Amino acid sequence: MKVGIIGTGYVGLPTGVGLAELGNEVVCIDREPKKIDALKAGKITLYEDGLEELFHKNVKAGRIKFTTSMKEGIENADLVIIAVGTPPHPVTKEADMKYIHAAATELAEYLQGYTVIATKSTVPVGTGDDIEALISKKNPFADFDVVSLPEFLREGFAVHDFFHPDRIVVGANTEKARNVIKELYKPFEGKTQMLFVKRRSSETIKYASNAFLAIKIHYINEMANFCEKTGADITEVAKGMGLDSRIGNRFLNPGPGYGGSCFPKDTMAMSYMARQNDVDMTLINAAIAGNTKRKQQMAERILEAVKGIENPKIAVLGLAFKDGTDDCRESPAMEIVYNLLEHKANITAYDPKAMGTACQLVGDKISYADDMYSCVKDADVLAILTEWNEFKSLDLNLASTLMRHKNIVDCRNLINADEAKKSGFVYKGIGK
Ligand code: NAD
User: How far apart are the CA of 121 and the centre of ligand 1, in A?
Assistant: First the structure.
């Protein structure tokens, strides 16, 4: 199938590479010439495990191309996938639709023959209708259907999740469009549940899923606070809860709050849509407020550990919003760093993949270390903010000889508390 993909970000690029690997002819379109120039030059523009290898393989096979030209990407396509950003509106916090509307308007004039336009971006309910109207207005003779094809990939596991999705949700209002999507996902037949629903249901499934997961994280964080006051251990509590198949053991890791480019914006967008429709969504609103407070609480914990120390040096391990990615958008680690900077903290940070993206956000307001040990050198507290596996292997004895004061605030419960204490640390984990 000939596929045009608009937007080569964290969703568009892995999707493009994955579809090329399945044998489709893919053209990835982005309005940022810098991104397209890099991709054309064989340089991958974001970090995702396993993506680079697959990217080179498919570029070499001629199955994937990159362009800034909408015409080039759309005119021969059987399927156009929209994967542009839907960031929160700066004032209302609803999903800002300017990129979606621009993409729909720009692609309209190049449609030739029957084309399915599939929205992978996370979009408010009713967006499919808006896209339909925009395209018809610009090109009244266009023969097309608009389908909602929400993306559920986890950043850091985008390649894995592309090839092993839990489910594929398709919101299509015509049989013809459904058949095009069925054909696209034929390689997954019998392996993955494909759910065909109304377009508006599909648009809602994405928000309902993300909001549910955000609430689950908020819930376990509140339960961790409870454990801290009562002498229970959240790790044991979460394990006991997770063994109940109705609850499941995923998203029960307490931490510094949820972050990333999806949960914060999607919960706010869902809350906005609920208000617009006069529906009370108290749980989502509680999760949003609680998550903001969570990051402040974590920063306070770190400052508490160095109370009384003059001009303390804070070593931060982890800047990405989670492990396996270089993405720092809405990262709890970054929010905590900003909060610490407001208190004039002296911060040195290390992250295995996200130093470049973090540097674009915070610049030289913090120092960057080349590894864990140069990060902790002369520090008065070590704050672990992202759950990278690498941090679990920190040699605590060595770290304790390098640090000025032996304090660890472990916001991800990565370090064994007993071992830390044996190495002379004052250790503070979460929910213990
Ligand atoms: P991103 O910001 O990484 O990428 C979007 C890309 O679209 C950018 O490169 C931008 O230059 C390009 N773009 C914008 N307007 C364009 C236009 N008119 N023509 C061509 N290119 C254009 O965003 P992302 O993280 O890939 O997210 C995209 C969408 O997918 C969002 O709606 C997001 O909520 C959703 N989503 C993201 C994830 C994730 O893990 N990041 C997961 C599921 C769903």
Answer: 7
